[in-house]
Amino acid sequence: MEKQAAAQRIQELRAEIGYHNRLYSVLYKPEISDSEYDALFRELQQLEKQFPDLVSLDSPTQRVGGAPLDKFVQVTHRIPMLSLENALNEGEIRDFDKRVKKDLGLALDYELEYVCEPKMDGLAVSLTYERGEFTIGATRGDGTAGEDITQNLRTVKSLPLQLATNEPPLLVEVRGEVYLPLAAFQKMNLEREENGDEPFANPRNAAAGSLRQLDPRITARRPLAIFCYAQGAVDGIEFTSQYHFLETIPRWGLPVNPLTHKRKGLEAVFAYYREIEEKRESLPYEIDGVVVKVDSFGYQQTLGEISRTPKWAIAWKFPPRQAVTAIEDIVPQVGRTGVITPTAHLKPVKISGVMVSRATLHNWEEMGRKDIRIGDTVVVERAGDVIPAVVRVVPENRSGKEIALSIPHKCPECGSEVVKIPGEVAVRCMGLSCPAQICESIIHFASRRAMDIDGLGEKYIDQLHKLGLVHNVADLYKLTRDDFMQFERMGDKLADNLLTAIANSKERELSRLIFALGIRHVGEHTAKLLANAFGSIENLEKAAEDELLSIREVGPQVAQSITTFFHNQKNIEIIRRMIQAGVRPPEAKKKVGGKFTGKTFVFTGTLSRFTRDDAKRMVEDMGGHAAGSVSKNTNYVVAGTEAGSKLDKAMTLGVMILTEDEFLKLLED
Ligand code: IVH
């Protein structure tokens, strides 16, 4: 490519990547898949490699993180980072409002203007921009000095490396909260469990662990996000109020929580709290209350601070999402990889609207450390994760009849020997024919993110195993209608659906097949890397350890686990049988010559006839392209219900608009 054309394309790519970064980490409405995003990113990296003088500091490629550090350097904050006083109810907010008005010499019935913000449950950071350029990022530390985590913060995609203004102030220090969106947290924990790593207890810990990585490349892999909420030191600009500040900085590209509002008077503040509390469960991130701040900076100055907390702000905390209940039983559960974890069966209890009857005790070490026993009264918490956790025992309620459970010596499912692997907290069943492991591995194989065999869940897999019809994943592909008809309450139609779903899974992409095999330490991400690098299961099977190690992100532990898996004759045989049965991932190459060749589709609004992923696949199967945003190059916009700005744009540009039915018809024609 000519340099001029490259420069043009680089600009386009940066804009597009920036747009998708914002959609993902500010609005949580990704329009493109991870792999499409990766493709854009790689194209940009490639062009910048080819034309190094076109690389600029604010390019998204510069966010991948520099070399690892030995330790963090201390930085002193120009202005101390304060913390907030807490309030737990309306009465305490009334007291706060009274105090403020008294100190300001205002009448008691005066309605003050407050800025109300969600209280993000993450980590406070300080961001320094000098002449618009992001120069220093630091943790709060003890409030006076924190740690320099600039390299790590550069990897936070929604944080601008350059302020989007032609007239940046000499200096502006912005404070905000770095957090991990819930979806990313859950995905990360699943991956950690699949890789045999200890999951994080809550999104806050996960965010903290990610930010305090000495190796920024690890931070770069964690989809952290940020909301800014306070002014630090400034030079060359003056803000008159909190609202003025929060209104200005998004124009520079700094994300501010869209639920931030100015409210006049106490009643309006109370209403705000109720609104946010109601929204809490549906927000894509964790909040633990709202923060109420006197809007006027003039008033703030008059009020001042006391013992490191401002007198002009207060945190109104939500009641914790905890409940007290009793442990009726502690049951050891055997997972797919043989790991045995203690699970508490609870006396059912409602926690913020959700009935909870199971909680994880994480592992035996932690159960011992917290001294959790059967019969104990315990505090249970829902902390962003799907499975609630037992926080602590209420010792006052002990009667002496509680039963402490010790690490099992035998597998509760198959009676095999149990081993504790040195250096791991996990306890593992080593039984090769352990039914729990077999069933779990088949459940994993069939699951949505693996081979996606619709309808084939735990219930059927357990029955198939009990009837002796399935001993491993290859057996799924020899099942017949008669096999299924032996089940209770099974009809022709259901049996056929299950068989079709199994048959459809034969053509899943290679990365899914690799992930589905359940090789230890090979999660979804690693499976994708392996699929890209080797192209077929046969090639992967033959791969030597050093070949595997030549893939970036594949370390010795992963490489060894893969070779061990493929050295096992039993595994090889299962794979052979699957291939014989017709399991054949399609070639990764794009199909050319389909009837949609050269056509670009955009899907928008709520789709009810098919999912967005399906739609994309259908278009791509016919040689077309599904894009995230509407432009003059778009050929068709397929609009579901509640289609918004994209539909408007399509109309303005005169792009052909289709309903879902019209799209399906076009496919069939
Ligand atoms: S303002 C001087 N606003 O809560 C005011 N803090 O206990 C400094 N936090 O350390 C903080 N959301 O980590 C402020 N909208 C928000 C916040 C917020 C979360 C955290 C922050 C701070 C702690 C104070």
Describe the structure.
By secondary structure, this protein is of the alpha+beta class. The protein has 24 helices and 24 strands. It folds into 5 domains: 3-62, Helix Hairpins, CATH 1.10.287; 85-317, D-amino Acid Aminotransferase, Chain A, domain 1 (2-Layer Sandwich), CATH 3.30.470.30; 322-397, Nucleic acid-binding proteins (OB fold (Dihydrolipoamide Acetyltransferase, E2P)), CATH 2.40.50; 435-580, 5' to 3' exonuclease, C-terminal subdomain (DNA polymerase, domain 1), CATH 1.10.150; 600-668, Rossmann fold (3-Layer(aba) Sandwich). Helices cover 36% and strands 20% of the residues. The protein has a 5-stranded mixed β-sheet. It has a 5-stranded antiparallel β-sheet with strand order 16-15-14-17-18. α1 packs antiparallel against α2 (34-50), α12 (435-446) packs across α13 and α16 packs across α17 (524-534). The structure holds 2-(butylsulfanyl)adenosine. The site of 2-(butylsulfanyl)adenosine (IVH) has 15 residues, from β3, β8 and β13.
**Helical segment tally?**
24
Superfamily (CATH H level) name of the largest domain? DNA ligase/mRNA capping enzyme
Overall pLDDT metric: 89
| Assembly state | single chain
Number of strands: 24
Query: Which structural class do the helices and strands define?
Result: alpha+beta
Strand order, biggest sheet?
2-13-10-3-9
Radius of gyration: 28 Å
Q: What do we call the CATH topology of the largest domain?
A: D-amino Acid Aminotransferase, Chain A, domain 1
Share of helical residues:
25-40%
Termini, distance in Å?
A: 38 Å
How does the major sheet shape up?
5 strands, mixed
- Return the CATH architecture of the largest domain: 2-Layer Sandwich
Tell me the count of domains.
Answer: 5
CATH class of the largest domain, named Alpha Beta
Bound molecules: 2-(butylsulfanyl)adenosine
Q: State the shape.
A: globular
